[in-house]
Amino acid sequence: MSIDFLDDFVKQTKTGGQKVKHYPKEYSNLRLRVSFGQGTLSKIPWVQVVAPDVGTSNGYYPVYLFYKQENILILAYGIGESVEADSWNSEIHSSKQRIDEFIDNPFRYGNSYVCEHYEPIVNGEEVNYLRDGKEVSKKQMTEELDSLVDYYKECMDIDLKDETSVISTGLFYMEQQLEDFIIRNWEETELGKKYDLIYEEGELISQQYRTDIGIMDILAKDKKDGSYVVIELKRKQTSDETIGQVTRYMGWIKKKLGDPEVKGIIVAGKFDEKLDYAQEMTPNIEVFLYQVDFKLNEHKR
């Protein structure tokens, strides 16, 4: 895809204009947002590539941040300023440099992480980009953005395609409600046919089951033999992280609760080849796929 919009963006930061209607509305089937400020010109205008329904202040997303005073354009692992946790994957937080480590006392967005950085040079209608004194080609810049966007999609655990809208699949919007939905409708699900929820003194303890190594999404018991079943919902984690999480909790159950027959279940929104390969080596872990149908029916009197 073309990143010609970036040249227009950089040139517009020199004019004081704030209109954004002429910019593309999407990039790689994600929303493209551009801002130069509202009323007052922003000191750090930005271009976001973001999943539907993700907010600027409370989400995370790939973003170009242009620090005008320093003349530094950063392609960043963007993090909303209201976000305290649960953004990107742990490897980003541990391996990438924060913007407030890259730029001394940045005016805003210091909690985001640097993916790539550029020095824009405007010559009339032409914009060139340097990194460490060497010119960076548009082809390379496009590849860098595409790589970050692909990683973002994996982190968000959504697969946005031209022919598939978020509202029809329900994958994105259901993430937060999926666990509650499964619990409320337990007996009607495939899980409820084989496994029982756990109660103590009339109180449900299966959901958000706490351990000293973390919180399981759901802990249930096999109807036939009473063995424990660890159920984890694959949300923003990668497949590798989800497999690791389930096996870790299974190990805890085996050691702490004395159940050598403990099983694991991963509930995911779409087929994942990595999960399929992992199942080959972990036969005591099952994968369930959920599907949401969204329909509008006319009300006839």
From TrEMBL:
Q: What GO annotations for molecular function exist for this entry?
A: DNA binding; endonuclease activity
Quick check: keyword DNA-binding in the entry? yes
One of its Pfam families is NucS_C
Q: Which UniProt keywords apply?
A: DNA-binding
Output the InterPro entries linked to this UniProt entry: Endonuclease_NucS (IPR002793), McrB_DNA-bd (IPR021961), NucS_C (IPR048301), tRNA_endonuc-like_dom_sf (IPR011856)
Q: Report the residue ranges that make up the Type IV methyl-directed restriction enzyme EcoKMcrB subunit DNA-binding domain in this protein.
A: 24-82
Q: Which superkingdom is the protein from?
A: Bacteria
Which positions fall inside the Endonuclease NucS C-terminal domain?
Answer: 193-272
According to UniProt, the name of this protein is: DUF91 domain-containing protein
